[in-house]
Amino acid sequence: xxPYAVAGFLLIVGASFVRGAKDKYQDFCVGAAxxxxxxxxxxxxxxxxxxxxxxxxxxxxxxxxxxxxxxxxMTSWLIRRxxxxxxxxxxxxxxxxxxxxxxxxxxRVLLRVAAVGPLLALPFYLLVPAAGxxxxxxxxxxxxxxxxxxxxxxxxxxxxSMHVAWALLLFMNAQNRAWRILLLVYxxxxxxxxxxxxxxxxxxxxxxxxxxxxxxxxxxxxxxEIEGRVRMLNLRILPKASTKRIxxxxxxxxxxxxFPAPAKR
Length: 265
Hints:
By secondary structure, this protein is mostly helical. The protein has one domain (2-240). The chain contains 12 helices and 2 strands; from the N terminus they run ααααααααββαααα. The longest helix is centred in the last third of the chain and has 35 residues, at 202-236. The radius of gyration is 23 Å and the shape is globular.
């Protein structure tokens, strides 16, 4: 996934120069945030493994079967048909697709939901720890594959599927009708790829749908309030001398506490 994230960074920076944008620094920051976020998620996933060494993968597999949804059978079918080749590119291309979405519409709301989503998902990962069938079942995707203990270094990040949630959030925040259709198709393919690749169970994909809507609602409802509180906090931590001189109408400087000393008379 890291190569796709780096490609997304290069795409955003390159598009910024082609477009002749004046705010290239903003594009650089957004582009750089993609590979940085991917790299930061790796140690975070390792921490979930340390906190939850035992997983509920066998239970999630049973829930799939109770719903008459067999991800193992779907994976085997794709392999037999020779169609499995597209699974990995679709699954790992998410950072690049995010970069394309930013280049097309530069949606700040999309940035917010993309950042808030994994933060809201973390409690669910700890409450329902699961690593995915690829890591928790010996001989996946054989129908008689037996559950084994997932290694600690594998992230517990199944329920809900953030891959599917991110793909749905891309679709939900697109404004252009053509892009919305393409992103909806991508979200559908991602839903299949996450299960076929052994990263998720069908129930993870199902739960990701209301979760994505919940993330969107949370950002739409509370972001302005959160932003206001952060601004108030910034004002409170200003030095007292600085706030006093603000009230006297003085302007910031680069020396001392940020304001020039009163002129001597």
